[in-house]
Amino acid sequence: MHTCVTNFQPHRDLASLPCCGRDAIQRNLSVVRLAGWGSWARITQSVVISLIVCLYSITMSKQHRTESKQHRTDPVTPIRVFRPDPASALLRLARLCAGPVERAQRALEHLQQRLFDSWLGVSTQESGQPTRQPGLVESGDNRPYDGCQWLPVRRALRDLAPCSSEVSVDLGAGKGKFLLIAGRLPYQAVTGIEIDEDLALWATRNIEQSKRRLRAQVVECITADVMEWPIPDDASVIFMYNPFIGPTFRTAVSHIFESYDRRPRKLHIVYDYPWEHDWLLSTGRVVVDNVWPRSWPARLRWWLDGNVIVSYRVVSEKEREHPSPQMRGPSFRSRLALQRWSMPNDQRFE
Ligand SMILES: C[S@@+](CC[C@H](N)C(=O)[O-])C[C@H]1O[C@@H](n2cnc3c(N)ncnc32)[C@H](O)[C@@H]1O
C-alpha cells in the first residue's frame, strides 16, 4: 500500500490506515516528537514527577512498616488500620530531599566561584589567613574578607541599568571580586576601597590580570579606611558586601548622605547581606527599590533570611516625606521579598 507523504496530516490520514500500520506510524511520530526541544521539558517534568511518586510510595510504605513493627513488639495495643497520611509523608519526603538539595546547591555555588576565577584568570577565594591590620582585628566592626557571589551581584547591577557616565564604588573591596564583576559592565569607573594592604594589592593584581575582559573605562582599588575616605560626588552605585557594622558602618553611610546632599542625583546603595538594614531604614534617608537572592541557585523562600541583596535609593530630607513610587519586582516572589525588606524586620545575622 502506498501512502502519500507530502502534506501528511496525522489526524486525517492515520484514520484511513489499517490498524497495524497506524500503530507503527503513531510510534514513529511520537519518537519524532520526542526529539523536539519542547519535549525535553516534558521528559524532565515526567522524570521529576515519577521520582516524587517513587519517593512518596517509599515513605508511605516505610510508615506502614513502622506501624506493623510497632504492633508486633506491642501486641496488646489494638491493631490500627493503616491509613495513608499524605501530609506527614510529604513532610518526610521534603526532609529526605533537603540534605541532597542543600549539598547540590553548595556544590553549584562553589563551581560558580571556580568558573569565575578560571574564566578571568584571577584568584578571589578567601585564603583563610587572618588580616594583617591590627586595628581591623581590634575593632569588632570590620568583617573579614569573603568574596561576593558572581551571578547574583551581576544580576543586581544589571537591573540598575548601568551606563557609561556612571561610577560604581565598593566599600571594603577585598580581593576585588565586585570590581571585576562591575568592571565587566559599561561603567565609566569602578573604584574599590580596601583597608588591608595585602588584599588591596591582591585586588590590583586581579584587575591587571583580567584587564582585557573589562568594559569599564577605569577599574582601580585604593588602600584606605572608609572612615577617612569621602564618597566621590559622581558615584551612582555604592556596593557593600557586609564589610563593617556598628559605628564604622554609620560613618561610611553618613559620608554617602553627605555626598548626596552636596550633589543630589540617582544614587543607590546595593547592600549584600544587609546586617544594618534596620538602622539604615531608621535614618529615613533611603527607600528600598529591589531585593534579590544573594546566592545562585536561589534557595526556596530565600527572602525569609538574611541571604539577600537589597538595593536602597538615597532620598533627600524633603523626599522622605513623599517618596516616589518604588520599583516593583516583576515576580510574585520578588514582591514578597520587597514587602519583607521595605520595613525593619529584626532579621538576625551571624
Ligand atoms: C566581606 S569582604 C567584601 C569583599 C568584596 N567587597 C567582595 O564583595 O568580594 C569585606 C572587606 O571589607 C574590608 N574592610 C573592613 N573594614 C574596612 C574599612 N574600615 N575600610 C575599608 N575596608 C574595610 C575587609 O578588609 C574585607 O576585605
Characterize the structure shown.
The structure is a single chain. With 350 residues, the chain is an alpha/beta fold. 46% of the residues lie in helices and 13% in strands. The protein has a seven-stranded mixed sheet. It binds S-adenosylmethionine. The site of S-adenosylmethionine has 26 residues, from helix 7 and strand 2.
Kindly summarize this structure in a few lines.
The protein has 350 residues and is α/β, with parallel strands linked by helices.
Kindly provide the radius of gyration, computed on alpha-carbon positions and rounded to a whole number of angstroms. Answer: 28 Å
CATH topology of the largest domain: Rossmann fold
Residues in β-strands, percent: 5-15%
Could you state the CATH homologous superfamily of the largest domain? Vaccinia Virus protein VP39
Largest β-sheet summary = 7 strands, mixed
Helix content: 40-55%
CATH class of the largest domain: Alpha Beta
The domain tally reads 2
| Broad structural category | alpha/beta
Helix count from the secondary structure assignment = 11
**String of helices and strands:** HHHHHHEHEHEEHEHEEH
CATH architecture of the largest domain: 3-Layer(aba) Sandwich
Strand order of the largest sheet: 3-2-1-4-5-7-6
Task: Flag low-confidence runs.
Answer: 1-22, 28-37
Q: What is the molecular shape? A: elongated
In total, the number of strands is: 7
